């Protein structure tokens, strides 16, 4: 383990944070493992209790560690990153990260489109749409609450599909012969309340990320409008940015 440099430009709590990060990065400390207590960290590194505490608080804040009342401090599972580059569904995103996807169907029903929905999906108000609300799981743990409103000719047949097991995107493409083409998506910061907090296992007011996605088929006909609420402590949206049209 790297040791602390006593004199140097970096504050000691920061150096300790780097040491902990390295232990996690190299896999020496595995997700779910308890880290040494504050007292042990003080002894190992010759630092004060306050320094150790500050490092831990910051790392809890960053989502690398979590605390359990009366039990200690543990290494958190790494966040799941959604790459905002290509149109992928939840199941695909999880599988790409070797996380087991899952879903609990909260409601699946036909619903008359209200004016806003009709406008988004370019259909007539009152036209029946398939409405699906799922709790999305990652390695059996709640990660997101997702509400999808789907419209295409014959979408009521989705009522017969088991969306606790099947991927919606996969069904649309394989069983219903729709070619998904592109999507527009917004991401916003929110806080979890009521139903969302309960389903996601979060305290009231905890941070969440909300996405709204309108997915089109290859002919640019809207197929699905989905609102997803992700646990803010478990999810990262990743974008690769390139600089265009700038003189070098
Ligand atoms: C993402 C999108 C949703 C979409 C879902 C499909 O989470 N935000 O719009 O409904 O993927 O996931 P799956 O194919 O696993 O059912």
Question: Brief description of this entry?
Answer:
With 248 residues, the protein is an alpha+beta fold. The chain has seven helices and ten strands. The structure holds 2-amino-2-deoxy-6-O-phosphono-alpha-D-glucopyranose (GLP).
Distinct compounds present: 2-amino-2-deoxy-6-O-phosphono-alpha-D-glucopyranose
What's the count of strands? 10
**Residue share in helix:** 25-40%
Mean pLDDT: 93
Beta-strand content bin: 25-35%
Derived from helix and strand composition plus strand pairing, the structural class reads alpha+beta
N-to-C order of helices and strands: HHHEEEHEHEEHEHEEE
End-to-end distance, in Å?
Answer: 43 Å
| SS field, number of helical segments | 7
Q: Uncertain runs with pLDDT below 50, 5 residues or more?
A: none
Major β-sheet strand ordering:
4-5-6-9-8-7
Q: Roughly how many Å is the radius of gyration?
A: 23 Å
Global morphology: elongated
* Largest sheet entry: 6 strands, antiparallel
